[in-house]
Here is the input.
Amino acid sequence: MQRDMGTTRKTSRDSLAGRMSQSFGKVANAWGGVTIQGINTLGDISLFSWRMLMWMVTSRPRSGTLMPNLYSVGVLSLPVVALTGTFIGMVLALQSYHQFKTMGLESKLGAVITMSLVRELGPVLAATMLAGRVGSAMAAVIGTMRVTEQIDALVAMGANPIHYLVVPRFLACVLLIPALTIMADFMGIVGGYFFSVIVFGIDHAQYLKNSRDFVGGFDFFTGIFKSVFFGAIIAIVSCYRGFHCQAGAEGVGRAATSAFVESFVMILAVDIVLNMFLDGVHSTFWPTSGSKLF
Amino acid sequence: MVTTVISKSSPSDVAIIETQGLSIRFGRQIVLHQITLSIPRGQTVAIIGESGCGKTMLLKSLVGLLPATEGTVRFDGCDLKSLSEAELTKLRRRFGFVFQNAALFDSMSIQQNIAFPLEQHGVPPGATAQTLIEQRLMEVGLPTSVLPKRPSQLSGGMRKRVGLARALILQPELLLYDEPTTGLDPIMSDVINELILRSQRRYSVTSIVVTHDMHSARKIADRVIMLYPFSRLLPGESQVLFDGAPEGLEECKDRRVRQFVRGEAGERLMEMLSISNVSHVDETPRLHDTIARREAE
Here is the structure.
């Protein structure tokens, strides 16, 4: 009887261990699959970028393909970037004013708003708007071309799809995102100024003096420099997603969504890396100047 | 090597395109297995076979749109695998491809669509190009008033004819058609067949036509090749079930060829049902378990 009970306990222990090792195996398998897929995608994107760069340096894009992209990325994105920039400047003023007032630092609001906008919010906001407005459209257009065999038709007629479709989009994003960032910065500063000076009654001269004193040329450079990388990310990720679009309307929709989500995540990740790099550059060349704000 | 590629030579009995042991696989899925074909200059070949047997894959691999997993494809004696991107681009000037749904560029007008191959191969826009475009458009029976229109403004038949005009613009030596009559009414299907025949006569072009349409295959082809899905072949069988003149199709000894030509389902429906029943039977207990578990919860 005792032997029977012992055997039963042993069997149930064995089956528990078996179940645990089975579920551990499943988890390991799933994670392994995700990791391998991630590495594959990263390798694929790197090769895709390399081919695009090779085409860009070896062959000039046709003006017929470049101009419509410049128009779509630059001119058509300008109003939405300007509008969101204005609102962000206003919200920043609205959120910071009361907290700064309790510390008696409301006169420094100009410096905080301008610094936040030119270093961080302007470039990230312009990039986000571009990823949403242009990136998704790029993925959807190229994805539809893939699904309807238009990309095959390009190849069959002797055109390289990377040269024909990706290079002009990449150039348009990289060349025009700095201009959009400057617009987002400018309109944000105008929005912040409006709320701080006109609505909250902060002294106009103090506001401008603080903005001028605390925000330097390097801060502007930081924002513009980062924006170029953001533009490159948007173009590469969106075009890559379009090229690897699955068949059907769902596939095109998924490509457009992934283009935005992945671009946005990569923009934020690269933002951290670039900020660390630029802080390092700043402290190397200007070791004595720390944060001038407080 | 490049000069070999560009030169238009070869006597008519020499194959313009040939495959040797051509195989295409996607992961574990085998689409084409060891296909060896030789198509002489000037011949019109119809490739028939049921959906999913790899006809379109074969067509795309012939012009290097889809790289072969194994084997070789030779165009005018030149192995496509050995060519650089630039050489392949030059070679493609000698092909014309009519896609299943025409694959016209949505963002361009009909004029720009037809002119695209010209621009791509260095013919500048101008009077000569315009004359060529209008001539090709007339040859496919379309008025010049469609030139400023967008592809979305044309009917399916008109789009296919524009696709044919675009494929003919460079006077190719080899024209490939992917299901040119699919989705068209019988009259328009026959119009397309006539246009294929006329282009063949006018330009002495070699044509390879992938089609399901037996009327079309019989009307336009000198030779018919029937492919069969690899997954349903018996061990050791070739994927090419028939290769010969269209007249021989009805007398073919292989029942599967006769069945396809006559459009008879035969035991195919039962075969499909038995496959779906097996998967249904497999799934049913699992489904019941899930329902029972949910009810218990």
Residues 81-281 of chain A form one domain. The interface with chain B takes residues 68, 141, 144-145, 148-150, 152-153, 155-160 of chain A (CB under 8 Å). The CA atoms of residues 245 and 254 of chain A lie 8 Å apart.
